[in-house]
């Protein structure tokens, strides 16, 4: 045999009594084993009792404490609350509305709390009847093509699959939707009906907010009637107490060490310096911009082709997915707020929840500087809602400014008209309001509490991972427009992207935080299935990925089905994006037909919808006779609606069906994922 150093030992040498006997070795092994298990068990117990590293949740009232096993009921009982407001939110509006309802509950002797259904055990709704005069309010947005928001998905599935007895639960539902979409407020309507089916009592009729019109007005009108119904149901009266009490208190953090101060991270401190997979909405990936080039050939508008590098990130995407981009506000607007309020933007501060029982300790990552909060965390470019007008009243020293704010904060017809004209029609943001009402000087920390969170922007990915596995392509029009007050408003994300020009030298490349959001906008499973794609303007984006993927399959020797593309823009020589690519796909046979509509190249405007009507036979041949798939991407307000009407008309005429039969046929196509839309308003 050999020892550890490889020196041979003859067996005849070992004739003396060994220094360590077999029994000694056995005892030694037992002692080591016991010590090992004792040490690691103790370590595990101690680690579980230690506090987790300090993190700040970026979204609204998130997790109910672990000690309560996600039981919002236990929290309601332990804190003497009788009102819980759940939200299903994708962009933050439903969350904001939920907070306003919970806050107003105090006026009706109903202490409230806001809760994220994703972080709660929603089966505890059956126990709401144990709390006297209790109510559960649901502010629920419908997202995508009639889908629940990400944080409401589990609750939605629980309602669908469960049969809980909700007798004794008093509830009301407000839905957030957009009438330009087919599935207007579908999720809120379902939740409202399903809760009643399970035995719950509807305290107030469902409210349906339309973001295409004035969702703020819809919400305020519904909310006022909600409280009337609540008072009637419980036999209570309004206390008359104002509800504009500060939710957060200011904490001076001037002594906090620099390494403990947030500088734009979404959730985890120093997450951009120390990136950790997986990447998602709370943990975006800091991607390098590899390509940023102009797609328009001429004219005063701009459309960018951007390639975001994901090499080494372990991120994967599918053709048709969306990429979320985290923007930041322009330094010009941020500096203007500091100037108008005479504030030190580089002062370090924190906002701490005055409700010690709340699991949402801060409205955004704290501590940070005011400059960081206004740049990365707060929305300073959208139109403020009426509750912000109300909170600003106390800061107006000029009676005229004060009266104007009071009027816009009111729910009178005159107040609603003034708010609609002065805020919405004239497109004023918080900076414009402070400029035009010069006596209004709110405390900057209070303003930071009032403003909504800056949300990420979503773009249809315009590439295929089969061809570009290490990069994500974005096709985006630069947003700049002049308002009725002669101010130039700039799109937060697109203007940031326009500045991110990669360098050709050794300087660090520009970066931007991103993550991938999964989509249901998918190519058919079989590559030989024929498809029709309708995508004017940047609606072409996902179809560029579709075509790349089919072209890849063709080059591999696989059979591919017909691909028909309808594309439109203003002028062929101005904004025909990806022209050379598309013509090449036509030449090599990947793209069977390319139908083009240039709306301003002739006296009479021509759109893709006109071409669809002209090609009714081709349309029916693919979706009717060959059971192909049809895809629409672009404007939901007019184009997508017009396309839907044309499809129904073609099915009725070419399929020899009645109007109701044609509608049912198209509905079935949607259910079978043979008719898919990726649209925006």
TrEMBL record:
Segments crossing the lipid bilayer: 20-39
**Enzyme Commission no:** 1.6.2.4
Q: Which reaction does it catalyse?
A: 2 oxidized [cytochrome P450] + NADPH = 2 reduced [cytochrome P450] + NADP(+) + H(+)
Query: What Gene Ontology terms for biological process does this UniProt record contain?
Result: response to hormone
- Mind telling me which CDD domains this protein's record contains? CYPOR (cd06204)
Q: Which cofactor does it need?
A: FMN; FAD
- Name the Gene3D superfamilies for this protein: 3.40.50.360, NADPH-cytochrome p450 Reductase, Chain A, domain 3, Nucleotide-binding domain of ferredoxin-NADP reductase (FNR) module, Translation factors
Residues given in the record as FAD binding sites? 457-460, 475-477, 481, 491-494, 680
Q: How does it sit in the membrane?
A: Single-pass membrane protein
Using the record's annotation, list all stretches that form the FAD-binding FR-type domain: 282-524
Detail which positions bind NADP(+): 301, 538, 599-600, 605-609, 642
Q: Where in the cell is it found?
A: Endoplasmic reticulum membrane
- Enumerate the UniProt keywords alphabetically: Endoplasmic reticulum, FAD, Flavoprotein, FMN, Membrane, NADP, Oxidoreductase, Transmembrane, Transmembrane helix
Q: Which Pfam families match?
A: FAD_binding_1, Flavodoxin_1, NAD_binding_1
Name one molecular function that GO assigns to this entry: FMN binding
Residues the record lists as binding FMN: 89-94, 141-144, 176-185, 211
Q: Where is the Flavodoxin-like domain?
A: 83-227
- Per its database record, what is this protein's job? This enzyme is required for electron transfer from NADP to cytochrome P450 in microsomes. It can also provide electron transfer to heme oxygenase and cytochrome B5.
Q: What is this protein called?
A: NADPH--cytochrome P450 reductase
